[in-house]
Predict the structure.
Amino acid sequence: MILIGELSLWVALLFAGWGAVVSFTGGALRRADLSATGERAVYATWGFVALAAAGLWTALLRHDFTLRYVASYTSANLPRLYTITAFWAGQEGSMLFWALILSTYSAIAVWANRGRNRALMPFVCGVLSAVTLFFLATLCFGASPFTRLPYDVVDGNGLNPQLQNPGMAFHPPNLYLGYVATTIPFAFAIAALVTRRLDGEWLAAVRRWSLVSWFFLTVGITLGMWWAYVELGWGGYWMWDPVENASLLPWLTGTAFLHSIMVQEKRGMLRKWNVVLVVSTFLLAILGTFITRSGVISSVHSFAQSPVGVWFAALLGIAVAVTAYLVATRLKDLEARAELESMISREAAFLYNNVLLVGIAFSVLWGTLFPILSEAVRGTKITVGPPFFNAVNVPLGLLLLALTGIGPLIAWRRASIANVRRQFATPGFGAVAVLAILLALGMREIHALVAYTLAGFVATTILQEFYKGVGARMRMHGEGVALAFIRLIARNRRRYGGYIVHAGVVILFCAFAGLVFKTEHDVTLKDGQTFAVTDPYGHHWEFVSMGISRFDALNRQVTAISLKPTRDGHPVPVIESEKRQHVDSRGSPTFEPSTAVGIDERPSEDVYVVFTGVLPDDTAEIRISFNPLVWWVWYGGALMALGGLIVMWPQADRARAQSGYAAVLAPERVAPAPAVT
Amino acid sequence: MRLPATVPAATGETTPRLTRRGFLAALGAGMTSVLATTPGTAAPQGSQPGADQPGAQQGPRLTMSGPMSESAYRPVQRPAKPGAQASMTAADRDALEHQIHCQCGCTLDVYTCRTTDFTCPVSPAMHADVMQLVAGGYTGPEIIAAFRAAYGERVLMAPTREGFNWAAYVTPFVALGAGAGLVAVLIQRWKRAADLAAQPIASATAGGHAAHAHVDATPEELARLDAAVRDDR
């Protein structure tokens, strides 16, 4: 199976190359037979990449240490779950994983469009096959997971202990699924540009794929934050590392696209802009990969410098050049079919939202690349860390939060003063009420006050929308509150799913603002000693050391500190933090010690305990942090993902038609609309 | 001491050892793509398994961004000021350390590094220097300046707000302003075009139903459609 897998990689490479050639040729010559061959090549490529993946998984599960990859990332005593996840623990495996997802997506896209978008599909297949070819070529010629060792080893190195976390099974795959999904909209955009079929056809085809990408990126980023928080011990979840930034960039432009696509659907506007956003999202995914994997920028996620980075730079350059040429030569085809009528309209609000989202993406990219620029211009190395990103992005983020609430309140086309006044009254009151309550409670932190006031505004906006919608259904259909609420969402998933996403955003911003009130304490405790402290809410905590214990676990030697806390005199479950020394199958230490964080999670705050060391007299060195509202980061992210799922869930036209208040007009029919005003 | 001893591996080779930051490096394999040193078929003779593993190491230990530079530490020491007293509280000192970049090769600040990566020898040494300067009566800006003199600008967690570095802070807002300005101009242009397009029809509407002669709907129906579009939020 392993040999079959290795050979399959090469066969897949050939099929991808063949698919690219015949698809483009078939499209250019309008030869249906060649186009059909190209589509079959996509399926074949997927089949052989799947075989290659099966080969690597087989090697991992059989502990075939003759393979460098298996010996490098696993050991005989590695738990089975992590043996499976070691597939994407290293360079070569993660590359194969990328190719596997890409070929799978490609096959799904071709199958889903077997009866649609026939004029586009040859070029879609061509682009998808070309990108797959790139990854397979990198695998075959630069980073093969099937490379064999020139000597025998008894056991492998094992997997980095901190990758032995359930997060390893979920976070990387989700992020990959998100990154790779940007390729499909890119392929459709290129196909639409090449064929000059730039009407709603290609948009309809890419919208769901963009949502798929957005959904998985959201889940992946949230899981990454959670994993970093529970595993690393520095008490945060986002450190503006270049690779973290790289995952944020396509998410930001993808989010901008999902808003601006509505303007094109309803008004036939922003056609050029949407093409640019789709292409940018894909290019940013590749750029992020390049800047962190080529070694040009230091990142916590860097492996080492690699000549393969040049390949990615080439891919990036070609993609930019081709896209720029296609857009430049098709500007007339991308003219808007309607004009914006007012600066106070939903379309304008989406434009402002797009400017902000892309502005934030630019500032993140700018900060990530600025060290290179500084060194090139001044010859001086500088660091651009969290203080910079927070200084630049916090105000932009707060503006975005405000727009999240403003947008839904403004009518399409043109909002009257009366309409604005009526719509903004309740949310405005909500914002003022939140501000007054927080001031009365003694909060004086300006950033937090602004964030919570805006959050109050947006939350009231969302509640108002649901209140009106549910009320309308109750009046029109005589439904109860619960039924009306469920049907309101079910019958207009895009709109109300979007509001659920906005609710998740509100929760996230509230949680982010909570970290302003974080407190940390470095303490040393002997067995039986107590540390007393007051948390940010004014609760009195006491931590009694239950002493240090030492024991062996599955594949590690553990030294643990247990703390027995009380909160305002009431007992709280014991918090335990560990230092772990992982060992190989013969009991020899394999990695440097790592730490398992102890967390007492609650909605108001996390008590975050890190066992930082042991003094010679068995005194434990501990860091205790109170992290307000962190719990809500995970649930805010989950709510956003749920909203995304609702938005992308297929909805029958009949159900949409019955929603009762969604006048969905095809772009072509919108153009005459000004005639009636 | 934080430096661990190298121990023999089961394979009889030097065991790759991994710092906490190695995790982050390894995570990169799962987080983004690929592409780093992978000997692959061109692996040099004698290279060992794990040599290419993120975080794994045979020579120098790895930080999150490459080999740990244990010799990167440079003493930042000054004589105590006459009659010196501690210039700040422990909390203020921790906040100050959040502004100083650990030089071991990681991307963390001194405070976070020394309380997170228990194997780093550099951040504790830098922390000791901060402690000594604080005890010697030096203020925050003086301590920052002393570190900058020893290591250069890279020791700061964010670019200073001076000279070329202003570009870092200003450019995003300039770009955003330019984008907003462009949008404002576009909206005005579109609005004018929309108004122009509406004018003849509006005047025709005033004269009766003629304006809608090309539309298969009554003015009442069109008004309802218009209202529906407006209400569709």
User: Anything to note?
Assistant: Strands of chain A lie at 519-525, 530-534, 540-553, 556-567, 570-571, 575-582, 594-596, 598-600, 605-614, 620-628. The radius of gyration of chain A is 27 Å. The mean pLDDT of chain A is 87. Chain A touches chain B through 143 residues (CB under 8 Å).
